[in-house]
Amino acid sequence: MAFFAAVVASLTAGGTGLDPDQKWGPFRQALLAVGVIGLGFPVASRLTRALDIRLTRQTLPLPKPPPASVTQGYVYGDAFRQPANSASSAAPLTHIPGPRSRITPLGGSWTRALAVRPADLKYLYLIPPLLIAVWILYVWFVSMGQMTSWTRTTSYYSLLAEAFLDGRTELRVDPPAGFAEVKDPYRHVKLGLMLAYVVDFSYFKEHFYLYYGPVPAVLIAPVMSVTGHAIGDQYITFAGVAGISLFAALILLHLHRAFFSSLPAWMLALGIIVAGTAHPMLWALSWAAIYSAAISCGQAFLLGGLFFSLPAIAGSETRKWRFAVAGLLWALALGSRINLAGGVAVLTLASIWGILRRYRPLARAAVERAALLLLPLGMAGVLLGYYNYVRFGSVLETGIRYSLNLRDQYYLMENGQFLNLAYFAPNVLYYLATPASKTPVFPFIRPVRESPASFSLFLDRLDVPDSHVVEGITGLVVAAPFILFAGILIAHLVCHTEDRPDEQDKSLRRIDMTILLAGLLVGMPLLLYFLVNSRYLMDFSPMLIILSVVGSWVLFRESIPYPIQRSLVKILVVSAAAMTLIISFLLAVTGPATLFDDYNPGLWQWLRRLGSW
Prior knowledge:
Layout: H1 2-11, H2 13-16, H3 26-56, E1 74-75, E2 78-79, H4 110-113, H5 121-142, H6 156-165, H7 188-191, H8 195-198, E3 202-204, E4 207-209, H9 215-227, H10 233-259, H11 265-277, H12 281-286, H13 290-314, H14 320-336, H15 341-358, H16 364-392, H17 409-414, H18 424-433, E5 437-438, E6 445-446, H19 453-460, E7 469-470, H20 476-479, H21 484-495, H22 503-527, E8 531-532, H23 541-559, H24 563-590, H25 596-599, H26 601-611
Parallel strand pairs: 7-8
Antiparallel strand pairs: 1-2, 3-4, 5-6
């Protein structure tokens, strides 16, 4: 229905006033293309399937692969193996053991839980080399191609760690000369050149603070106390982005083993590469400053908690330590990036629901697991509230109101223009569909740093406030076309319903819907925010990429009985992954600050000559 509406809107844009100049500009053409492709894809799929059936003389698709059983040795993250002739191996998968029973012989032993079975050796040989290759690419970007010498960016978290080591919350930063005489420091024009020395600090009662989440500073403080050296934000950003790729790979591994074990291993490998390189992962590393450090750390902790909570969300038996680890990681996520609160709430509720589905609400096992999950989150809430109160006299004030920058955020908040519903429609458009700016020389594409002309006529009719700002942005659909497979998964969740889905299908659906809802709630504050920037994509794009990979797996699995369609799906998946990697790489070379030509001019000239061939 949405695709049909897109076609109608593009064809009637002149009459309805959406396109007053009656010209078929890029935006109108793109709207028509999206509608035609969306309507044509299911038609082409059905025609191809009909041709497959005719050529292979099949009248029915092959039976659906059976759900993972105990003889396959993996159910929702619990590794085990039983003899095929054992009595328990014949038990149906739909049987759910009682609170005191165990479906595995692990007995809670970490050693046996982490034991590798022969069937899993292919994953052991596959995933570590892929992650190492991706991390080497990260090092290349964060060092501007120098590898051993990392480009210095900011050291804000080191300043905060030094304050913590001194038992304070304010930074040991002396104000620039003349700062005390400025009557209104929250207007950047009053600060002039002094702003360069205090940009993005929060100023309150003659002290400077950081409004970024304190957890990364807490984690590096012990290291700094031992080494005596500051840790630049580029190292924290690298650790955060590497953590995102690691936990995304573990989540995909879990889903592949539990629900898609019949698919070839190359699809898992391709998904791990896409999850590790899709925009804005590489982009964040090309200028690894405080902004990307806070976002990447928060997202890494969020995905880490998601990985450990997957069995609970699926509704299967799980160990107590998983709840404790998930709760701790989500608490660290909140302490790094408070914007993630909506996503943490969704994931926590889904885990609690999984507990209640398995145990009686007041049973001891349910209470213990819920307490292990909620206790770290409750402690994080109390500590963050106290941290805010000590600094600003309010448990809810993070300090962003008092930040010093070019946007005068204090007055945006006072005037209700910091978060506003009027930003929602343009932000959705920018974050999804902003085209890249073309250049005749390498890297050939650049992010858009202001509203594209193709968007202007449409956005002018929305009466967007003048306070709305667009910085370097390229839409996800343009920068990472693999994201479109998430749309296929959503359509599958909504449209493909079975009368009697098995327990495996129900579990996968619960996981997919939970990740989707968490991603939407994490992204919602950004869609109401006055500033559009590529770095904010990292708040929700990793979860969308995970769903995209699952969507490609679902599409491939449904095409298995049909040789022609299966080959076309292979080409489509590989092509989308290759385009995502190439476009993300080129955008990252440009980066937020285009620093490659400054820090490594020799490499930059070599890349330009290579691109001119």
